[in-house]
Specification:
Blueprint: E1 2-13, E2 28-39, H1 52-66, H2 82-94, E3 100-107, E4 112-116
Antiparallel strand pairs: 1-2, 2-3, 3-4
The structure holds zinc ion.
């Protein structure tokens, strides 16, 4: 069974290795929507995979590191593509939430997104 929790954050970034003259080389901002999925068997006694309060606490700690930051200044996000943001969020949550199964990062204004199913998936 899978459960999910969403969070939103706003952040600036630029892509230093984009082609010369490409708008992505200039600093700009996005509103991101992130969906974190956890997978597991609901415990027999509680009927839940994981307390949503636990999930909320952990994803808010991650959100705090991203929201209203310049993503390029965050260690591990020096070249902050959607793909790297998704993997960075996964890495930040994998220890506190070992049931993690998927991270979706949506950039609604661009109608784009990335789905990451972990280092063992493509
Ligand atoms: Zn961008």
């Amino acid at each position: 069974m899978k459960i999910y929790k969403e969070f939103l954050f706003d952040a600036a970034h630029f892509l230093p290795y984009a082609e010369e003259g490409h708008p992505n080389r200039r600093m700009h901002g996005h509103s991101f929507r992130v969906v974190v999925w956890l997978k597991g068997k609901p415990a027999a006694e509680t009927g839940i995979v994981r307390h949503f309060e636990d999930v909320e606490r952990e994803i808010m700690a991650v959100r705090e590191k991203l929201d209203h930051h310049l993503l390029n200044e965050i260690e591990g996000l020096e070249f902050p593509t959607l793909e790297r943001i998704a993997a960075w969020i996964w890495d930040a949550l994998a220890t506190p939430l070992p049931e993690i199964a998927r991270v979706e990062v949506h950039r609604a204004s661009c109608r784009e997104g990335c789905i990451y199913d972990g280092p063992e998936a493509e």
